[in-house]
Amino acid sequence: MIHLGMSGRLEILDKETPPKKHDHVDITFHNSKNILRYTDPRRFGSIFWIDGDIKDHFLISRLGPEPLESLFTGDYLFSKAQNKKSPIKNIIMDSHIVVGVGNIYASESLFKAGVIPNKLGKDTSLDECTKIVKHIKATLIKAIELGGSSLKDFYNVNGQSGYFQQTYNVYGMKGKPCRKCKSIIENMKIGQRSSFFCIKCQN
Ligand SMILES: [Zn+2]
């Protein structure tokens, strides 16, 4: 199992490609002249050999559902959020609740749902949770269609970065006018992470 951490990535390369600074592991195949190379500038990733059921592994056994799974619904998010005093943005980025919702997807989905990122879990209604879940799914599907996401360091296995970033509404847009209402996009820190929002469109 390969855990990409914050910035790990895999690339298919010719066996002869010399390693660069942040390349850590090459996986070779006896029937191919290509290798699978693991690169990780921030080094939060890890690689495990697993015997037995991967679902029992400590990194996976306590994880929440995938966002696109049918288990991830408005009712589910509401049940997890309603007794929490933490901001809804942190709740949707908590991998024990739902996996794979990073800072960009969280910011963009909350904008689309019209929910301000620092709204506390316990103050978030079922209707809002339903909208948030709907937009997390839609945002992810759109990003996948556009070839993935991310700031500077997302690449697919062919080494190309994604195009999703060109369609951001709020992420990284501090000081720019909101695409919907022309108010200026603001930024606040929530749990050490930059959180972009429109004060008019989100409450
Ligand atoms: Zn707005």
Plain-language structure description:
With 203 residues, this protein is α+β, with helices and mostly antiparallel strands. The chain has two domains: 2-56, no CATH class; 74-197, Helicase, Ruva Protein, domain 3, CATH 1.10.8.50. It has helices at residues 74-81, 88-92, 103-113, 126-145; strands spanning 2-3, 9-14, 23-28, 34-39, 46-47, 186-190, 193-197. α1 packs across α4 (126-145). It starts with a strand and ends in a 6-residue tail after the last strand. Zinc ion (ZN) binds at residues 178, 180-181, 183, 198, 200-201.
Net shape: globular
Strand residue percentage: 15-25%
The total strand number stands at 7
Q: Helicity, in percent?
A: 10-25%
CATH topology of the largest domain: Helicase, Ruva Protein, domain 3
Overall radius of gyration? 19 Å
Mean pLDDT: 90
How many domains? The number is 2
Distance between the termini: 40 Å
Please list the strands of the largest sheet in the order they lie side by side.
2-4-3
Bound small molecules, by name, code or SMILES, are: zinc ion
Strand count, sense and closure of the main sheet? Answer: 3 strands, antiparallel
- Report the total helices: 4
Q: Which class of the largest domain in CATH terms?
A: Mainly Alpha
Q: Which stretches are low in confidence, meaning pLDDT under 50 for 5 or more residues running?
A: none
| Secondary-structure element series | EEEEEHHHHEE
Q: From the 3D coordinates, which CATH architecture of the largest domain would you assign?
A: Orthogonal Bundle
Helix and strand content put the structural class at alpha+beta
